[in-house]
Amino acid sequence: MLEEPVRILIAAAICWLNFVTVDLIFKLPEKGGVIGATAIAEQVEATGGNKNGGFMMGNIVSSPDASAGTLLAACGVYCSGLFGGLFAAVLVYIGNRICYDPGYAGTTGCLTATLIVYGAVQSGWFAASDFIAGMVIAILTIQGISSMYASRLIGRLWRIRSRFIRAGRP
Amino acid sequence: MIAIVVCAVLAVYAGLRVVTERNTMKKLPFVNVISFGVAGVIALLLPHPLTILAAAAYFVGSTLESNAIASTWAGGMRRDD
Questions:
Q1: ipTM of this model?
Q2: Cα atoms in the 13 Å half-sphere on the side-chain side of A154
Q3: Is B16 exposed, middle or buried (0-12, 13-18, 19+ CB in 10 A)?
Q4: A99-141 confidence digits (pLDDT tens)
Q5: pTM of the full predicted structure?
Q6: Cα A15–chain centre separation
Q7: Chain A: nearest CA to B79, how far in angstroms?
Q8: In chain B, where are the structural domains located?
Q9: Which of A28, A143, A154 would best serve as a mutation to test chain B binding (most B beta carbons within 10 A)?
Q10: What residues in B contact A136, CB-CB < 8 Å?
Q11: What is the pLDDT of residues A46-76, one digit of tens each?
């Protein structure tokens, strides 16, 4: 096993890839799910950011998405193994329904994260606690450092994702 | 041990950013980071099967609050009376 700080940084990168990929697949940067998410996107755009990136940031704030799913999956696996991660997926789905969201992104992100975290713990390379701290670092890079640069990065990834939509694929 | 310190320090950092940020709508992403940090600390402090319920309840409640603040600030639902 590597040193704990190194494991946490690798786990942060894995968590970041998991939640950004799932959120892009479920088109979170396309539009605001609720009026509050749209308002956040407008503010981000007004201060030099990208509107699509702002939509994703607003949607993450307004409803448990794949990032919340990844965090709670890591917490579930840490507390009670594979069953805990699957139970977290049920809780994320309920949380999504409370926040007027269909809930596919959050639940899918939670299930993929459960498999990743459980697999990583079983391999012996990581502890589940690495992924909890890693996910907090991963969300910090999107929500907590600079809304302008984070939204531009997501906007760039969204342009790549939208090519597939224009080509007629989902 | 390092994991719990990372979660707590990042939550405090996000708290300071909430205080220093002037624009209300732009405070909310930092509130989101606090929720992540505190939910992580809850799980790491209490390794018990039921802890996942507490962490999820805290996290969903906090998200719903942010949702309500953002929607109200953006105009919310119109009332005719």
A1: 0.92
A2: 36
A3: exposed
A4: 877 778 899 999 999 999 999 999 999 999 999 999 999 999 9
A5: 0.93
A6: 8
A7: 16
A8: 2-73
A9: A143
A10: 6-7, 10-11, 33, 36-37, 40
A11: 999 999 999 999 999 998 999 999 999 999 9
